Amino acid sequence: MVAPLIDIKDISFEYEQTKALDNISMKVEEGDFLAILGPNGSGKSTLLKIMLGLIKPSKGKIELFGVDAKNFKNREWIGYVSQKSNSFNSGFPATVEEVVAGGLAKKTGLFHRLPKSAHQEVAEALEAVGMQDFMGRSVSELSGGQQQRIFIARALVAKPKVLILDEPTVGVDHQNVQAFYDMLASLNRDKNITLVLVTHDVDTVTDRITHVACLNQTIHFHGFKEQLHTMSDEQREAWYGHSVRKIHHIGGSHA
Amino acid sequence: MIEAILSYEFLQNAFAAGLIIGVIAPLLGVFIVVRRLSLIADALSHVTLAGIAGSLYLSQSVASLALLNPLFLGIAASVAGSVLIERLRSLYKHYEELAIPIILSAGIGFGAIFISLAQGFSNDLFGYLFGSVSAVSRQDLLIVAGIAVVVLAFIYFFFKELFVLSFDDEYARASGLPAKWIHFMFMIVTALVIAGSMRIVGILLVSSLMTIPVATAMRVTKSFKQTIILSIIFGEVSVITGLVTAFYFDLAPGGTIVVTSIFLLLLVIAYKKIMVSLKKGAIA
Question: Where exactly are the transmembrane stretches of this chain (chain B) (predicted)?
Answer without folding.
Answer: 14-34, 65-86, 98-121, 141-159, 228-249, 255-271
